[in-house]
Write a structure and sequence with these properties.
Helix content of chain A: 25-40%
CATH topology of the largest domain in chain A: Rossmann fold
Oligomer: heterodimer
Helix content of chain B: 25-40%
CATH superfamily of the largest domain in chain A: P-loop containing nucleotide triphosphate hydrolases
CATH class of the largest domain in chain A: Alpha Beta
Shape of chain B: globular
Number of strands of chain A: 28
Number of domains of chain A: 4
Strand content of chain A: 25-35%
Number of strands of chain B: 10
Distance between the termini of chain A: 62 Å
Largest sheet of chain B: 6 strands, mixed
Number of helices of chain B: 8
CATH architecture of the largest domain in chain B: 3-Layer(aba) Sandwich
Largest interface: A-B, 60 and 49 residues
Radius of gyration of chain A: 30 Å
Shape of chain A: globular
Number of domains of chain B: 2
């Protein structure tokens, strides 16, 4: 907020392993800066007595461990924000947890910070977590690191212990790139080198933690100097006013400036600028403005108004670092929503180039990206977006990935560069089109996607339906999951990643066949909703008919036509749908066949009737 | 920035207006963020019927001046059941007249996002709130399972029936709020400024006698003291502080030297340890 900037604001985060003393450190800092109120202090005394971790002494961590659950477990479980100030600066602290399952919160804290304090327990030495956290915060663009070697009181304030840890860390940190690192020996519990120099560590002549926080220069200007205004909101109170609102993410703008609108590339001039303080002639980075243009342009939320002579790149493919934040791994090919500024598009990782190994900074090959892993990958989007690289402009180079079903934020990404491939492979326009081919056959081409458990009767029903359609003169093709696996998808196994690729290929083949004017029947277990959605999105609206063959697992297992359930139960087949791999039933299939008590003939007839009703045949 | 995101990402937003200073700032920001248009969302006040009389008068005058329509909601079932802070205790009363009333109002109007003025510096469990805080279809908050918020990217995707609480002032401190009020000359309820008021000392709090529904216990005496309020809620539950600060700049001066936390005088926070967190899980702001 602009108010804070008058005095200078530093946002920093603290990270470290469990029990390194983060909460104690922040609590003690707040205490030293007189930010603890009398009633807060009274509560602290009471709670320290009742079960604090510091025995009878004041347990400063109780000042910051907010949630009941973590008070009971004795660990911080979420990001907590704290506010304090000294006469020199204002501070916002993100207190972030160290243990592995909540690392995503650390990335969250880092995304809005300029400096990171990495805590190390002097009695334990440098831990893997510290390296992991360093790598994450450096990836997140933080260039100022403080190595806080805590609990020096436990090692008798020995200089050699500190020196070894600091040297180890500096060796490791060389791989982090261009960073400013300050190592400080301290005791958060006793207050040594927090806000006052430690008498016990007279050998240390560097700054105290607070000195350093007050004076470190974090003016890391956005490297893009040209004007960028991502449009957040189109303001139209009446027919005479059409303004575009947003916060300027780079550069300056003045009335009369030439601007280019991305992604369309249209040109115009700035006609007026409205700031929170009223009309203005110009405005700069960080200001929330509403601008109007000299010409009528079709601009909507997500577009970017930028300097005409230095516009940001536009692409539907780019390479990026992605931090994965969900228990279900990232599977290349799976559709996600990508949100970059006010833009949101569908996206999929097309290629996972490598997974970063935090321990030694090396790169590992990987097919999927697991919880808390970071990978470098290519992404393909269904619409082009306007962006800058993350290094040049954090605001326009960062994105989040959202699961389209649960709506959870599952990943965060930082754009390395755009891929121009999209510009070079053009669509060849054909003169004879789908409509012409379909008209010849007197049918409306579509995909009939049969999904259901193994043994539910998908293929049997599809077979009967194909005969029925053929008798009517329909031109059909049946793609059977098993058969396709013998040829086109011979190279794929049954891991989640391979299943996604399997469906992607079948989806592409059916799309081509629909283009050829055929009625394509796909008989395929396809257990995941997101993959079925992927196949659906490959064809046009109305061309995808999902047929859910709903046969209860008990019946399928009893039939066990291919003897597969028996094998799966015996543990001879892994990842078998319904046994040790989930089946996600369709929520709104076009056709829902309750298959338990009907014959395949009746079911095929049911599908046929729907196709007639829809005018497909 | 955050207010515009709310308006853009949701179908039916509502701004929760509590008449307090944070609400005043919020409303002021909303008027600016969408100028020259009016804020594209409804404004709601949950009236417990126990607010200070001056608050209600101020509210009605301000809405008329800004030309905004205000929805006022009261839990009538609670009123009919005779739930009052005196008869049922602060915990039960807050649950019925505030939390339940709020949920009722949100469901009644189908609001998919409610904008509140809560700040992270107010209370320990609020420090962990997201700017966009997800609520289940039952308005519950799951503190352990929150969406990460990276950079300025706010994820407001929800399914029908679910909702989000949005807190644009998350990163403001009490001092920031007062500094902004001073800079922008934002009108406030006079109760924030020191004046001679009739108060009773009860359970260590100075309670203002705002109307004749308050009955005095034995030994209690109404005294006239120079007091003001740091936060405003329901008069029987909101303690005054003794103060001489009668202008915004005097308040800022006083705050800089204060040793008591802002909500120290709010009875509902002290019902039991972790009390705010419990209320939040149940749907309180």
């Amino acid at each position: 907020m602009s108010l804070a900037q008058e005095k200078g604001l530093l946002r920093f985060l603290t990270c470290g392993s469990v029990d390194d003393g983060k909460s104690t450190l922040i609590g003690h800092l707040l205490f030293d800066c007189n930010e603890v109120s009398e009633d807060g202090l009274a509560r602290l005394h009471a709670q320290s007595q009742a079960g604090g971790r510091a025995g009878a002494a004041l347990d400063y961590s109780l000042l910051v461990d907010g949630l009941m659950a973590e008070r009971e477990q004795g660990i911080t479980i979420d990001v907590a924000y704290r506010y304090f100030s000294t006469p020199k600066r204002k501070f916002i602290v993100a207190d972030t947890p160290g243990h592995e399952q909540y690392t995503r919160n650390m990335a969250t804290g880092a995304s809005n910070s300029d400096l990171a304090i990495l805590l190390v327990d002097a009695s334990k030495g440098l831990q893997i977590q510290t390296k992991r956290h360093s790598k994450i915060v450096s990836l997140m663009g933080i260039r100022h690191l403080v190595l806080a070697v805590n609990k020096m009181d436990l090692v008798e304030y020995r200089q050699d212990v500190f020196d070894t840890i600091a040297a180890d860390y500096l060796t490791f940190a060389q791989k982090l790139g261009d960073c400013d690192i300050q190592a400080i020996p301290l005791s958060a519990l006793q207050g040594d080198n927090l806000s006052r120099h430690s008498e016990a560590m007279a050998w240390y002549d560097g700054p105290t933690l607070l000195d350093h926080l007050e004076t470190v220069d974090t003016s890391h200007a956005v490297k893009v100097s040209a004007f960028r205004l991502p449009v957040q909101w189109v303001n139209r109170p009446n027919a005479n006013f059409r303004g575009y609102s947003g916060t300027i993410s780079a550069g300056q703008v003045s009335i009369g400036d030439d601007v280019r609108i991305g992604p369309s590339g249209a040109l115009s001039k700035i006609a007026s600028i409205l700031t929170p303080d009223g009309e203005a002639k110009s405005a700069g980075i960080g200001e929330a403005v509403t601008v109007t243009l000299a010409d009528e342009r079709d601009i909507s939320r997500g577009n970017v108004i930028a300097a005409a002579d230095d516009p940001p790149p536009v692409s539907d493919q780019f390479a990026a670092h992605v931090i994965w934040m969900h228990q279900q791994p990232l599977l290349p090919g799976r559709q996600l929503q990508l949100r970059l500024g006010a833009q949101s598009v569908n996206a999929a990782v097309t290629e996972l180039k490598y997974v970063i190994n935090y321990e030694d900074n090396s790169h590992n090959a990987g097919k999927t990206l697991g919880f808390n892993e970071t990978g470098y990958c290519n992404l393909a989007l269904d619409h082009p977006v306007v962006f800058d690289t993350f290094e040049n402009n954090r605001d326009m180079g960062s994105f989040i990935l959202v699961d389209k079903l649960s709506n959870e934020t599952v990943g965060a990404g930082m754009i390395a560069f755009g891929l121009r491939r999209a510009d070079n492979v053009h669509w060849q326009a054909m003169d004879v089109d789908k409509q012409a081919r379909a008209a010849l056959k007197g049918q409306k081409p579509c995909v009939l996607w049969f999904t259901g458990l193994s043994g539910s009767g998908k293929s049997t029903i599809a077979n009967l339906l194909e005969k029925r359609l053929l008798a009517r003169g329909g031109h059909t093709y049946l793609l059977d999951g098993d058969n396709v696996r013998h040829g086109l998808n011979r190279d794929l196994g049954f891991t989640d990643a391979d299943r996604v690729e399997n469906i992607r290929r079948i989806g592409e083949v059916s799309r081509l066949m629909v283009d050829a004017g055929l009625l394509v029947m796909v008989s395929f277990i396809s257990p995941f909703r997101s993959e079925r959605r992927l196949a659906r999105q490959m064809v046009e609206d109305g061309e995808f008919v999902e047929v859910f063959v709903d046969t209860p697992l008990e019946i399928c297992e009893e039939r066990d036509v291919k003897g597969l359930y028996k094998k799966a139960r015996a543990g001879q087949i892994k990842n078998f749908t319904g046994i040790d791999s989930p089946y996600e039933a369709p929520e709104n299939p076009e056709i829902h066949l309750h298959a338990a008590d009907k014959t395949p003939e009746e079911l095929a007839e049911e599908v046929f009737a729907v196709l007639e009703a829809k005018g497909i045949v | 920035m955050i207010l515009r995101e709310v308006a853009a990402q949701f179908d039916n937003p509502v701004l929760m207006y509590s008449i307090g200073k944070d609400s005043a700032v919020l409303l002021h920001l909303a008027m600016k963020a969408f100028a020259p248009a009016k804020p594209p969302f409804a404004i709601l006040h949950v009236d417990t019927t126990w607010k200070f009389r001056e608050m209600i008068a101020f509210r009605d005058a301000l809405m008329a001046e800004l030309g905004l329509d205000l929805i006022v909601h009261t839990n009538m079932a609670g009123v009919e059941a005779g739930i009052t802070p005196f008869s049922h205790g602060s915990a039960r009363y807050t649950d019925v007249m505030k939390t339940a009333a709020l949920k009722e109002a949100l469901s009644l109007h189908g609001f998919d996002v409610a904008i509140g003025g809560a700040r992270r510096d107010e209370e320990a469990s609020r420090a962990k709130e997201r700017i966009f805080s997800f609520r289940s279809a039952n308005h519950r908050w799951d503190a352990k399972n929150q969406r990460p918020e990276l950079w300025n990217l706010l994820n407001g995707r929800i399914n029908p029936g679910e909702s989000v609480r949005a807190f644009p002032l998350s990163n403001w401190t009490e001092l920031d709020v007062w500094t902004y009020i001073e800079a922008e000359n934002i009108p406030l309820v006079p109760l924030y400024f020191a004046a001679k008021r009739p108060v009773v000392k009860r359970d260590g709090m100075l309670v203002m006698v705002d109307d004749d529904r308050m009955t005095l216990a034995e030994g209690e005496q109404v005294e006239e003291r120079m007091v003001r309020f740091r936060t405003l809620g329901c008069y029987p539950l909101t303690g005054a502080i003794e103060s001489e600060a009668s202008t915004v700049s005097e308040i800022i001066e006083e705050l800089t030297h204060s040793n008591l936390s802002e909500r120290a005088n709010r009875a509902i926070d002290h019902d039991e340890a972790g009390s705010m967190e419990k209320k939040k899980q149940e749907g309180y702001f």
